[in-house]
Design a protein that fits this description.
Protein name: Fimbrial adhesin MrpH C-terminal domain-containing protein
Helix content: under 10%
Number of helices: 2
Shape: elongated
Mean pLDDT: 67
Radius of gyration: 32 Å
Oligomer: single chain
Low-confidence stretches: 1-45, 63-79, 135-152, 186-197
Strand content: over 45%
Number of strands: 28
GO biological process, one term: cell adhesion
CATH class of the largest domain: Mainly Beta
CATH topology of the largest domain: Immunoglobulin-like
Number of domains: 2
Structural class: mainly beta
Length: about 350
């Protein structure tokens, strides 16, 4: 008797995802400014986390530890009045220029800054505090500590898009901004004698440039042209099912045509077994699918490596080969796996 098994809706789903490199590093900076009223800023070691995702970079600067102090040595902007003490309202302004992020010597336009507001110049943030001193002591203001001892208030996350001219490699990154001090003086009690708060232009002109360095590695990032592919074996007989092959193609699209990409198939939710032909994925109803990926040069298996500098945007073929076991039974079946691409 001829044995026949009808298999319906035999679909093997392959979900494709990409892994991206996260790169972390610590940095420090001593900041000197040339502002008339702000002579020096000392910054303790901040933690800087740099993440590159293809052509996008994210610089996360955490809160500065306790100990950040400004030394103010400004002349009193108004004439001292004998016997009258003074209070000063301070405005500290930080400005990050639009191109204040450097990767090597290449300026990178900043898209956003979490703690700064967009302006025509770039991104700015202000906060206020106050101090007081004696009537005759207008030449030595003293020291002032930032709120929460943090130059970045709140912690700053800067995002930017890397230009085409920046290729994969190791770079010295720099985040540049300006720290300016606006000061508004008034008497206590108020007698009508009051200085105007310097304009934004004045603050910016007198502010010193601050640079926070950090190392960064720009790596090639690749993705598949399809978010997922389906390997459909269709409706087949038992005889046709043995060693039946279903395949589909997708392209590997990389940000840069440089570097070696590794494409690997991994099991999802089940235990796969790697073989010389690929990786065996158990399916429902006792069947096995041997999944493999084939590259443009004929290389194949559960994982392959491709030199994207010699083969940009290579075409890949994913293949499913059905295998029976002693537990194979009639009926539909399905399974899934994940294809992962990493840059070596």
């Amino acid at each position: 008797m001829h044995k026949e098994m009808i298999l319906r809706n035999c679909i093997l789903s392959v979900r494709i995802v990409c892994l991206f490199l996260l790169y972390s590093q610590h940095c420090y900076a001593d900041i000197y400014t040339t502002a008339v009223q702000l002579s020096r800023v000392s910054i303790a070691t901040p933690t800087t986390i740099v993440k590159t995702d293809g052509k996008r970079i994210r610089v996360d600067i955490s809160r500065i530890p306790v100990g950040t102090v400004d030394t103010l040595s400004a002349l009193c902007p108004v004439s001292p009045t004998p016997g009258l003490s003074r209070n000063a309202a301070l405005r500290i302004r930080h400005v990050i220029p639009k191109n204040g992020l450097l990767i090597g010597s290449e300026p990178v336009e900043i898209i956003s800054s979490s703690s700064h507001q967009p302006s025509s110049y770039g991104f700015t943030t202000d906060y206020f505090t106050s101090f007081s001193w004696g009537a005759e002591d207008c030449f030595s203001v003293g020291t002032f500590t930032y709120p929460q001892s943090s130059v970045f208030w709140p912690p700053t996350v800067v995002e930017a898009q890397l230009p085409e001219s920046i290729t994969p490699g190791h770079y010295q990154g720099k985040l540049q901004f300006r720290a300016g001090l606006g000061i508004s003086l008034f008497t206590s009690p108020l007698t009508g004698q009051q200085a105007d708060l310097p304009s934004f232009t004045q603050i910016l002109a007198s502010a010193g440039e601050v640079t926070i360095p950090f190392p960064v590695e720009v790596k090639n990032s690749c993705k598949f042209s399809n978010s997922g592919i389906t390997l459909d074996h269709g409706t087949i007989t038992y005889d046709e099912a043995i060693d039946n092959i279903a395949s589909a193609t997708t392209s590997l699209i990389c940000d840069y045509s440089a570097g070696v990409a590794k494409v690997e198939i991994k099991s999802a939710g089940v235990t796969g077994v790697k073989t010389a032909d690929g990786i065996d994925i158990p399916l429902s109803n006792g069947w096995i699918s041997t999944l493999s990926v084939e590259g443009p040069s004929g290389q194949h298996g559960s994982s392959i490596e491709i030199d994207t500098s010699s083969t940009p945007n290579p075409m890949l073929r994913f293949k499913s080969t059905l295998r029976s076991t002693k537990d194979s039974v009639l009926g539909p079946f399905a399974g899934s796996a994940v294809a992962v691409v990493t840059m070596l």
